[in-house]
Amino acid sequence: MKKLSLPVVILFLSINLFAQKFEDLVMTPPMGWNSWNKFGCDVSESIIKRMADAMVQSGMAKAGYQYIIIDDCWQIGRDAEGNILADSLRFPSGIGALAEYVHSKGLKFGIYSCVGDKTCAGRPGSRGHEYQDALMYASWGVDYLKYDFCFHEKLNAESAYQTMRDALYAAKRPVVFSICEWGSNQPWLWAKDIGNLWRTTKDIYPCTNCDGDFKSGWLNILEEQVPLWKYAGPGHWNDPDMLEVGNGGMNFLESRSHFVMWCMLAAPLILGNDLSTMSQETLSILSNEEVIGINQDTLGKQAYRYLTNEGVDIWVKPLSGQRYAITILNKTKNSTTYEFSWKWWGKCFFADSPEDEPYEIYNVFEKKKLGTTENNFEAKLQGRDVILLIMSKM
Ligand code: GLA
């Protein structure tokens, strides 16, 4: 066997000893768009360009959405040197040129690969090519990598993701690293120093509470997030999967509640709909400044569920400036009325504040102040509706 020279060994060791995740990326949850939920394998250069154009024209870029991410099926093979090749029929100008186009719109560019030697859709994965792929992504100007877990052949998840993290770091272009192993190996326990976000569930579908082999509605996914609030924070987020708002399968209130709850969860806000044809209703849900503000709050706390009773949930998200966002979510299909006394509840909600200090209540969707926590509160909710309140010190 050929002996490695000392400088090569030192270089290799130092790359790996000092490898780490890039600092200071996504200190608030990433916001963007991904091709999978709407287009699946039917992706192409023209679709991606259309989405980048629509992101800017619709005002969504101004609302904070930044990343345009191509999911599975852009890859077709490898050349004789092992370099990853894009499908040249669907991406005739090449991925580098597409990234340049996305950047020219003031947006960031993301791509997808997989731990295994095949992706979930059977395209070439990165196994054994991690450093080579990372260098290619850097040369194309990739800013975000979603890295899946199909065909892992029982690889240890933590080491597999660490390998790609190290490869990205060695390639020297800061990349947001999105771990997608569906929560199967509890990434919230080990991924904080490896990735910037980690999927916590199987795939989301455009429905409220459907449940199948590898698919879930947003209400089922929400339930699974209950114990995870303590693991999220700036630069390392739980990812309950992308948004389905605008993809049908849900009425207005269900779609709005899905979005509000993803904001409460400090979830990455990765849109999954066709941005070029979305309705005013979809746009109004997804671009609501105050709701997005709760997601993007700099404290970076994920909401915890304070109580659940007869199909109604109360979730609390601490915000900067000693404020709190509170949602009252009706998970049932029937209307309901909820009455309560803040004085009693507040002792638990506002743990860091003197019990007797009242808070001012602001209803986000009614855009009005509702008095203070000194009064009792009555909430009337239609089926699957949510009330979103911001509480601040007077
Ligand atoms: C898995 C992921 C999805 C998507 C597909 C692509 O199912 O969980 O989000 O990336 O693979 O094949």
What does this 3D model show about the protein?
The structure is a single chain. This protein has 394 residues and is an alpha/beta fold. It has 2 domains: 23-295, TIM Barrel (Alpha-Beta Barrel); 304-393, Immunoglobulin-like. The protein is 27% helix and 24% strand. It contains 11 helices and 20 strands. It has an 8-stranded parallel sheet with strand order 11-8-7-6-5-2-1-12. A hairpin with a 3-residue loop joins strand 14 (312-319) and strand 15 (323-330). Helix 5 (130-140) packs across helix 6 (157-171), helix 8 (252-264) runs parallel beside helix 9 and helix 8 packs parallel to helix 10 (289-295). The chain is globular. The chain starts with 5 loop residues before the first helix and ends with a strand. The model has no long low-confidence stretch (mean pLDDT 94). Alpha-D-galactopyranose binds next to loops. Alpha-D-galactopyranose is lined by residues 36, 71-72, 119-121, 148, 180, 182, 203.
> Which molecules are bound besides the chains?
alpha-D-galactopyranose
Main sheet record: 8 strands, parallel
Number of extended strands: 20
Kindly estimate the percentage of residues that lie in beta strands according to DSSP: 15-25%
CATH superfamily of the largest domain: Aldolase class I
- Strands across the major sheet, in which order? 11-8-7-6-5-2-1-12
Kindly, what is the distance between the CA atoms of the first and last residues, rounded to a whole number of angstroms? 74 Å
Label the structural class.
Answer: alpha/beta
Question: What CATH architecture of the largest domain would you give?
Answer: Alpha-Beta Barrel
Task: Name the helicity range.
Answer: 25-40%
The CATH class label of the largest domain is Alpha Beta
Q: Which fold name is given in CATH as the topology of the largest domain?
A: TIM Barrel
